[in-house]
Write a structure and sequence with these properties.
By secondary structure, the chain is α+β, with helices and mostly antiparallel strands. It has a domain of 118 residues: Electron Transport, Fmn-binding Protein, Chain A (Pnp Oxidase, Chain A, Roll). 26% of the residues lie in helices and 34% in strands. It is built from five helices and nine strands, in the order ααββββαββαβββα. Strands 1, 2, 3, 4, 5, 6, 7, 8 and 9 form a nine-stranded antiparallel β-sheet that branches.
């Protein structure tokens, strides 16, 4: 059974025939600008919810967990997402305020990783985000927290059929 499942996994379809070109030398120097371009291209390619990403956190013992959520904004504070402080991710971020975001757009053969410390944004910004949620009824939620990943590393990854995938990394020296 195990070998047949392994063969089955290897037989699954790969990336689409047509993949976008990516030349890191021609990419914007600002990773947020490059991300906005790739997000727009993902939307044009029909990627549903291209603003959805995996958020990975770890508890105080370093045990990881990951889940999907929606990117709220990118600005000078960082890459925004929100959650209840009482949730598992909220508790993990209190104990270990570091995280990784991963965006994946299979139709484009692209992914973007954002890694860094996480900061809690202010009560006013958190309340505004809570009230802007779909279905908001005007009530307050003091547990709702807007967070920002402050990138120490951002990597843009473009798949290629020859398996010579392109990685374009911004490290601490470019992000400070």
């Amino acid at each position: 059974m195990s070998e047949s499942f392994r063969q089955y996994l290897r037989s699954l379809p790969d990336f689409p025939e047509e993949l976008p070109d990516f030349d890191p030398a021609a990419a914007p120097a600002d990773p947020a600008e490059l991300f906005r371009q790739w997000l727009a291209e993902a939307l044009q390619a029909g990627v549903p919810q291209p603003n959805a990403c995996s958020l990975a956190t770890a508890d105080e013992q370093g045990r990881p967990s990951a889940r999907m959520l929606i990117l709220k904004n990118i600005d000078d504070d960082g890459w925004h997402f929100a959650s209840s402080r009482a949730s598992r991710k909220g508790r993990e971020l209190t104990a270990n305020p570091h995280a990784a975001l991963n965006f994946y757009w299979p139709q484009q053969g692209r992914q973007v990783r954002v890694v860094g410390p996480v900061a809690e944004l202010g009560a006013e910004a958190s309340a505004a985000d809570w009230h802007a949620r779909p279905g908001a009824d005007g009530s307050d939620n003091p547990d709702w927290q807007l967070y920002a990943v402050r990138p120490r590393e951002i990597e843009f990854w473009q798949a290629r059929h020859d398996r010579r995938h392109i990685r374009h990394r911004f490290g601490p020296e470019q992000l400070s």
